[in-house]
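Predict both folds.
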Amino acid sequence: MKNELLKFGNVKLRDIEDEAVADWRTAGATHLRVQLPASSENVIEMQKRRYFWADRTLGVTINLMRPKLDYGKLVRMEVTERDDLKDDVLRIAKNSFPDDRRFHILPECDEDIAALVLETWVREMSGALVCMYKERPVGFAELRETGGDGLFIHLAAVEEKYRQAGAAMSLYAKAAEIAAKRGYKRLCGRISTANTPVANLYAFLGASFEKPCDIFLKEAAK
């Protein structure tokens, strides 16, 4: 179980992950976000508690021990590790997540609150893979260690007009190549079931999909 209080300006988000519905500690929060294993029973119970069902996500895993692809050959645009392009990363992120529930924490999407959350995420990055097109940053992926044998894609985005040009494939393939070279057995992530393009990209790279979870939101005073 996880129960953390995250602060974004005047917004205090109680971020909860659990295996079942419970009477969680919510003190000090202005907003609540709860992640639970996907089930109709959980949806019904959370709706009784006046939570808003916001999204369903899937865990994804690329097995790097038995690769079916040469990831290096799929990297067709320049991808480098950078820690000095946070303004560009934030610009790309703000344009890429119009309704992502990691950042939109109200039932009605609020761009101002989402911007606060995104700015915190980007500010806390220690570095990222950045995809370049003619010296312009057009996409990024932040990788984090999971504490085990996997590397996790914590956040990734590509400017829309460069997605079909190979920027997204280059980023994810480079992430898989780097993870394998560093001795990790898995490249992992978690995506919304509504994000079909990224799901298709993961599937092409040989990912398996598992552990569906539902996301519920609520203002703490309600």
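Second protein follows, with its predicted structure tokens after the sequence.
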Amino acid sequence: DSGDVLFQEEWINACKGSLKTSCDFEYSANLIETMLLGLVAYRVGKKIAYDGKAGRVTDNPEADKLLRRTYRSGWTLNG
């Protein structure tokens, strides 16, 4: 498929530093953040206000709690 060739060329050129891909990490991160916030709003059953810089929901404590997880001992993430 010719679309695969273009994607592969774009990816190789981006690795070499001569191109920014059309779907880079910043684009992907913003898209995933938006989708996950939509799921949080769905779970609490109402619109939410989100402060992206602070990484928190500002108008709904229940929704804000869904943004974080407390891991069991031994299953923590470093980073």
